[in-house]
Inverse folding.
């Protein structure tokens, strides 16, 4: 909203003869295009990798074409393989605690077993006035220094932090308190295919059972175990969500006999199944939106907001907090 209001103010100053309706519509258009640019050039490359994204949507010059192989966006449906499995990778990158600004000295857990709104970041109620986020604690901001480094997300792997195993009830619904269990139950209820079946349908070699690790890939890799060590019933049929998280580990490390062997060899991003699903849904939905950057190939972010030609989420945030 602040970015939208920033654009409204700029347009009023630059186009005094425009009607309010026209100013609002153009501000809306600019926000949409800038946000989509940040998604396509900043967020998606970090999550799925530039190679996967370029295979689906090569952003080269004025001529752009999509190469959707598995997703038909004409119905504008959101496939359950995306909503219930692939895009839930985000649950694995949540940190257990965060520091949000200099006014709140302590780092706060995402959830806690208390009803005190000053003790966690759980939401579902008004936040205390001193809980405003200082984005320098999350992004490198020029001219802003904080103690320590910005708090990066956790790596994509088959582990969730402790607070996500104790979701507050009934605020988060009637399901189990474990978010991982909720995801797996939802997958079963909707009849999602296994990760191996989806891989084969996409023409991708499925991971072996001993390559599908459960546990942390970075901090405690020795505690990871193969999915069939968790239960032999998962042999050859890993839940799709679990499989997609395991792909990220298998792409970043050499995995043998249910263990990580050696140092990291590649960034921890979604793999050939998860990355392709996420990329195709984002690109497909933009394809059917006649106002998207796909249909505005000459669009480039306003130079007032770019940093050496770059416009991502850091630049978007910097634009609104500097205004």
């Amino acid at each position: 909203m602040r970015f939208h209001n920033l654009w409204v103010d700029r347009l009023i100053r630059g186009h005094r003869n425009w009607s309010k309706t026209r100013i609002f519509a153009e501000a809306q258009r600019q926000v949409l295009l800038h946000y989509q640019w940040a998604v396509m050039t900043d967020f998606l490359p970090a999550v799925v990798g530039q190679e996967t994204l370029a295979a689906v949507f090569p952003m080269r010059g004025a001529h752009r074409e999509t190469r959707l192989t598995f997703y038909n966006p004409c119905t504008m449906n959101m496939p359950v393989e995306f909503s219930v499995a692939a895009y839930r990778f985000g649950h694995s990158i949540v940190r257990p605690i965060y520091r949000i600004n200099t006014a709140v000295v302590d780092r706060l857990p995402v959830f806690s077993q208390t009803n005190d709104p000053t003790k966690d970041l759980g939401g579902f109620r008004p936040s205390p006035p001193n809980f405003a986020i200082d984005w320098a604690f999350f992004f490198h901001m020029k001219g802003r220094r904080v103690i320590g480094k910005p708090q990066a997300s956790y790596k994509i792997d088959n582990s969730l932090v402790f607070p996500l195993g104790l979701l507050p009830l009934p605020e988060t619904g009637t399901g189990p308190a474990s978010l991982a269990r909720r995801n797996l139950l939802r997958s079963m209820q909707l009849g999602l295919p296994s990760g191996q079946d989806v891989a084969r349908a996409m023409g991708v070699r499925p991971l072996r059972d001993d390559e599908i690790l459960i546990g942390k890939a970075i901090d405690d890799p020795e505690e990871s175990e193969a999915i069939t060590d968790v239960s032999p019933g998962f042999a050859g049929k890993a839940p799709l969500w679990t499989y997609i998280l395991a792909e990220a580990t298998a792409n970043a490390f050499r995995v043998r006999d249910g263990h990580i062997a050696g140092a990291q060899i590649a960034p921890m991003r979604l793999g050939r199944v998860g990355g392709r699903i996420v990329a195709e849904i984002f690109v497909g939905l933009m394809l059917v939106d006649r106002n998207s950057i796909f249909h505005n190939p000459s669009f480039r972010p306003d130079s007032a907001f770019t940093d050496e030609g770059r416009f991502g989420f850091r630049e978007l945030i910097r634009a609104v907090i500097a205004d």
Notes: The chain is about 35% helix and 5% strand. Residues 156-161+177-292 form one domain.
